[in-house]
Amino acid sequence: MSRGVQMENANPVIFQRCRDRPLTASEEDEDVHDLIDDREIFDLIRSINDPEHPLSLEELNVVEQVRVKVNDAESTVGVEFTPTIPHCSMATLIGLSIKVKLLRSLPDRFKIDVHITPGTHASEEAVNKQLADKERVAAALENSSLLEVVNQCLSSRNI
Questions:
Q1: How many Å apart are CA 80 and CA 115, to the nearest integer?
Q2: Kind of pairing between the strands at 111-116 and 76-81
């Protein structure tokens, strides 16, 4: 965040990170077909950086494993995310970052639905409509400035 700009939520509540899931030998074996599950998707998105704070989406409780639904057989992934405040202007950017992370990480067969947890944001219908529109998402990612911000959210943080 640039100097002199007021943060919308200057003092967010910080939540405890859950433990990392140990990898099994069969998960690491590329010859073994293992199903993609809720926890695997959560592990992909939990460390996404918040665009406003030096914290992950998991640490801000924006993403939770209980709000991730995967059906490997039907190739669907659904993620609900909860902005830290009801008027968060970063909601679309956060949703876009989650969607891009999943588009880059999952096989093409998956249909990815990313939306705001119902009742948690003043503009949830408009944000959800933007995130569900493939053309709008593609156009957003053609904007080099916006893509740079998304990539910052997806980059590894040096702690």
A1: 5
A2: parallel
Domain boundaries, the chain: 38-154
Distance CA(61)–CA(13), nearest Å, equals 8
Query: The domain 38-154: what is its CATH number?
Result: 3.30.300.130
pTM over 0.90: no
* Residue pair 62/56 in contact by the 8 Å Cβ criterion: no
Q: For residue range 90-141, list pLDDT tens digits in order.
A: 999 999 999 999 999 999 999 999 999 999 999 999 999 999 999 999 999 9
In the chain, what percentage of residues exceed pLDDT 90? 75
| Arithmetic mean of pLDDT over the chain | 87
List the strands of the sheet with 68-71, edge to edge.
Answer: 68-71, 76-81, 111-116
Q: Is the pLDDT of residue 2 over 60?
A: no
Residues listed for the chain: 159
Residue 27 DSSP SS3: helix
The Cα 129–Cα 124 span in angstroms is: 8
Q: What count of other Cβ atoms lies within 10 Å of the Cβ of residue 39?
A: 14
